[in-house]
Amino acid sequence: MSVPYWRLSGFYFFYFATLGGFLPYWSLYLKESGFNPIEIGELSALLVGTKIIAPNLWGWIADHTGKSLRIIRIASFFAALLFAGFLFAHNYFWFAWITIAFSFFWNAVLPQFEAVTLFHLKNEPHRYSQIRLWGSIGFIITVLGIGWLLDSQPVALLPFVIIALLISSWWVTLITPEAKAISHGPAPLGMVQIIKKPEVLAFLVVNILLQAAHAPYYVFYSIYLKHYHYSATVTGLLWALGVLAEIVLFVYMRRLLKRFSLRAILLLSLVLATGRWLMIGWYPDYLGWLVIAQLLHAATFGGAHVVAIHLVHLYFGSQHQGKGQALYSSLSFGLGGMLGSLYSGYYWESLGSRFVYSIAAICCSIAFVIAYIWVGRENVNIRVKRKVKSRM
Q1: What is the spatial distance between Cα 271 and Cα 330, in angstroms, rounded to a whole number?
Q2: Which of 4, 13, 3 is nearest to 123 (CA)?
Q3: pLDDT digits (tens, 9 = 90+) for 366-380
Q4: What is the CA radius of gyration of the chain?
Q5: How far apart are CA 290 and CA 271, in angstroms?
Q6: Got the DSSP string for 58-102?
Q7: Handedness of CA 247, 135, 375, 361 (dihedral sign)
Q8: Which pLDDT value is given to residue 1?
Q9: What pLDDT, on the 0 to 100 scale, is given for residue 184?
Q10: Does the pLDDT of residue 105 top 50, yes or no?
């Protein structure tokens, strides 16, 4: 069966378009709703914290039932339905519970769709970046559109925009065909045996640290720019610039995978991430440094994420792909994102934004050391490079 390129791409488009409404502007909406930085950090931590449990639960169900797409459709529907509850919430208690309920379903969707995409691609996983780039395009369109909208309209419109995007994402899942994993060879290792491997443990720790470092950016970057008197349009342009750089990377990712090892791409991404957070934290008055920092998003998120998707595909195999993608998502974006959201929320006012972004840089430096010692062993690098070369 041929790859349903546009339906897979359509899902990524609307999913990350939704994220484009969240990441830059949800903290502004919470601030307008009367919440302080600590409460914003806590609500953001709840949003990502459900990733610790939800993806693993849904991933286990998907791998045992073989009904990944049915789970994605159900989760997408309830995510849209529950998010509508924000239209009626007026205090911290209700915001917290709706955040937990909505994110429990929404956070289950992407890891399982990643698995569905890789099942459709079969022996051509290097084509993943060509599909995933449409998510970045959706993110840019939403970020720019909402930034332009909020320069003239109240931020109270934001939930309505996000609800429309969630419904669109659910609709695409209804027209996407199911895919089955093809297994060859001897029985695979169990999940526990895979996770106990030093390189797998190190890979997971590296991504926890990397996403903990990204959390202050995701939660407070728009508030940070507003404090330094950047308009909503400029804020949207800076967010969009980072994702545009990510798109360029995705376009050339096949060539990079052919020429460079996963280890080399990951290590360079971590070095650039360290520099990025120092630029944002120490030079907010200089637009030029902020522009450079946003261009580095191509490496700090795009490059690192593509490497992670390939490593999960190699480490966990087709039989554990749903659980592997879920574990990667829950520990990195879930645990890492939650820890980063909490520390940035607690220290944003007491110790300042410079301290928060400096801690993010330190997290990436530690991740670099761990990755340098344990992640990307030579046999894994050769295996990926041969696959790419043989399919070009």
Answers
A1: 24
A2: 3
A3: 999 999 998 865 444
A4: 20
A5: 17
A6: HHHHHHHHS-HHHHHHHHHHHHHHHHGGGGT--SHHHHHHHHHHH
A7: positive
A8: 53
A9: 47
A10: yes
Indicate whether 181 pLDDT > 60. no
The closest alpha carbon to 299, from 275, 279, 281, belongs to 275
Helices (H) and strands (E) in the chain, counts: 18, 0
Q: How many whole angstroms separate alpha carbon 141 and alpha carbon 137?
A: 6
CA dist., res. 197 & res. 181, Å (int): 24
Distance CA 197, CA 174 (A): 38
Tokens of 129: 């970046």
**Domain count of the chain?**
1
Residue for token pair 């450079």: 292
Strand, coil or helix: 6: helix
pLDDT of residue 122: 73
Instruction: Give the Cα-Cα-Cα angle 241, 126, 188 (nearest 5 degrees).
Output: 125
* pLDDT tens by residue, 256-275: 988 998 999 999 999 999 99
pTM for the predicted model, two decimal places: 0.79
Distance CA 219, CA 24 (A): 8
**What CATH number is associated with residue 56?**
1.20.1250.20
> Which range marks the domain in which residue 192 is found?
5-178+187-391
CA 281 to chain centre: 22
Residue 44 tokens read as 């953001």
Cβ contact 314:380 at 8 Å: yes
Q: E strand or H helix at 15, and its extent?
A: helix 5-32
Q: How far apart are CA 175 and CA 359, in angstroms?
A: 44
The share of the chain scoring above pLDDT 70, in percent, equals 92
- For 245, the token pair is 């750089």
**Arithmetic mean of pLDDT, 201-206:** 95
Give the integer Cα–Cα distance in Å for 261 and 241.
27
Token pair of 375 as six digits: 């992640």
For residues 367 and 261, give the distance between their C-alpha atoms in angstroms, rounded to a whole number. 18
- Give the three-class secondary structure for 40: helix
The distance of Cα 345 from the centroid of its chain, to the nearest Å, equals: 20
Tally of CA atoms within 13 A in the half-sphere of 137 that contains its CB: 14
Say which residues have a Cβ less than 8 Å from residue 16's Cβ, sequence separation at least 6.
135, 136, 138, 139
Residue 246 has which token pair?
């990510």
- Range 63-73 burial, b when 16+ CB lie within 10 A, else e: beeeebbebbb
